[in-house]
Amino acid sequence: MTISAILFDKDGTLFQFGATWEAWASAFLNRVTGGDAAEAARLGRAMGFDVISGRFHPDSVVIAGTPAEVADALAPHLPQMSRDDVIAMLNEEAEVAPQAEAVPLRPYLEALRTRGLRLGVATNDAETPALAHLNAAGVAGCFDFVAGFDSGYGAKPDPGQLIAFARAVGVPAEQIVMVGDSTHDLIAGRSAGMTTVGVLTGMAGENELGPFADVVLPDIGHLPGWLGL
């Protein structure tokens, strides 16, 4: 197997999902409700988040959805706000959400680049907070391509972002690995004709990811060994 490029999902893959997005959900709900605990709990249920435990439900729209999809789930409960205003607030809170790296990212990504691999990020987050997270981790410059759901290529599980990455780096799909923590990532990878690798740093387990992955690994740190790098 010849691999010349790797495309990573962001949340749950480069960064641990729970440590980042549970804090984000709590901060957003506190802000949008003005600290009203009962209202925060009601809105939390609409987005699949339990404010008492601080945890997402397995079927939460936040796990693999776009900010627009989260806004659509919340909109009926926020009649005083426009959909665009909800999206804007979601993205503002996302930009400052704490990021817990799945592995120390800078040395990891620099080692991959030293091996001549082209690297990219395809996320269902918006592009602006995605770049903010990568810049905060000091790794934005390690990537040849970064796309969010609003970058013009669509969102996963559709393969538009993945096809755009292949074109941007000039690498055929069969030489690219798509790495992600959700079935959306892996379905997109299969649709694009790429090798698919699932990781367990998100909310999905091996049983859920396995049918769509060539391999499921504990985290991205195990990827170079699996690739024989």
Written account of the structure:
This protein has 229 residues and is α/β, with parallel strands linked by helices. The protein has 2 domains: 5-16 and 101-227, HAD superfamily/HAD-like (Rossmann fold, 3-Layer(aba) Sandwich), CATH 3.40.50; 18-95, no CATH class. It is 44% helix and 13% strand. The protein has helices at residues 17-32, 37-46, 61-64, 67-74, 83-95, 105-114, 127-136, 160-169, 183-192, 206-209, 223-227; strands spanning 5-8, 49-50, 55-56, 118-122, 145-147, 176-180, 195-199, 215-217. It has a 6-stranded parallel sheet with strand order 5-4-1-6-7-8, sandwiched between helices. The longest helix is centred in the N-terminal third of the chain and has 16 residues, at 17-32. It is elongated and about 55 Å long.
Topology-level CATH name of the largest domain? Rossmann fold
**Text of the CATH class of the largest domain:** Alpha Beta
What letter string, H or E per element, gives the SSE order? Answer: EHHEEHHHHEHEHEHEHEH
Which geometry do the CA atoms define?
A: elongated
Helix content: 40-55%
Strand order of the main beta sheet, please? 5-4-1-6-7-8
**Average pLDDT number:** 95
Going by CATH, the architecture of the largest domain would be: 3-Layer(aba) Sandwich
The quaternary structure here is single chain
Number of strands: 8
Given helix and strand content, the structural type is alpha/beta
